[in-house]
Amino acid sequence: MTEPRTYAGALARLRQSGLRPTRQRLALARLLFEAGDRHVTAEGLRGEAEAAGVRVSLATVYNTLHQFTGAGLLREVVVDAARSYFDTNVTDHHHFFFERSGQLQDIPGAGIQVSGLPVPPSGVEVARVEVVVRLRHK
Amino acid sequence: MTEPRTYAGALARLRQSGLRPTRQRLALARLLFEAGDRHVTAEGLRGEAEAAGVRVSLATVYNTLHQFTGAGLLREVVVDAARSYFDTNVTDHHHFFFERSGQLQDIPGAGIQVSGLPVPPSGVEVARVEVVVRLRHK
DNA sequence: AAAACTCATTAGAGTGATTCTAATCTGTTG
DNA sequence: CAACAGATTAGAATCACTCTAATGAGTTTT
Hints:
2 copies of one chain form a homodimer.
Chain A: H1 7-16, H2 23-33, E1 39-40, H3 42-51, H4 58-70, E2 75-80, E3 83-87, E4 93-98, E5 103-108, E6 113-115, E7 124-137
Parallel strand pairs in A: 4-7
Antiparallel strand pairs in A: 1-3, 2-3, 4-5
The first copy, chain A, binds a DNA duplex (30 and 30 nucleotides) through helix 2 and helix 4.
């Protein structure tokens, strides 16, 4: 049973993760989780918060993104050396990356099969398999 | 017909790419291409050049890595937000990434099959499909 | 409901990788 | 070898991100 995408839902998410429901975290949680699957950058989310009339420092945005990631509410996606993206979709899936615009788009997990993976060296285990389809303008 | 991994080879590579064979570019080309498939960072390559007695500024290392990448001699691999890796293997293949150590290791292209890719949106084409298998310690 | 406690937020400084600048040097060409 | 175009360089600048240490705000206790 997943949380509803509401204020109450945001509150419950925080409580379940052992994070105090502060003004900033609630506001960021609502921006992140009430609008469906999203890919945000720290600066972008900060801008949205400002636009929504919530005063949040950039440090807090970074803290919050990392805390949410640690709690499994977000997933970090590394596709661009210039900045980090955080994905609200934490289910198994992959990404299109539009190099021109820097936009990310989900590819449903069911849509892609990766076969023939070699056995990882001993002592390590697979944390995740990430597929990025890089797109450029024709 | 690929270039031999020799001084003459490095020179020919540069010529073919329309890059002047300067001392620095030749030295970096030899470090990169005479030792088989490699994954280097700018700082790492700079260190190797110093160790080999070649004076090269960090700016030149960056310039050169990007020029080589533009010429198709290298491929940039984005797996770590902290730094960029450049891969001397420009054939079709994928990577293991050891999160603990920051090491990259090739997975031969033949070893992995990605199926079920959705058709990319109109107006764009697939530049590359990248698979990264993230590994962590057990 | 105030005190007390713990954890969160913040401004601003700090960091580390990368890029820029503008001055100097070096292949290349005539 | 003169002269030009392009390359290299030190150091400053930038950019995303992190750290610090001081202030603020949920929470729990009285």
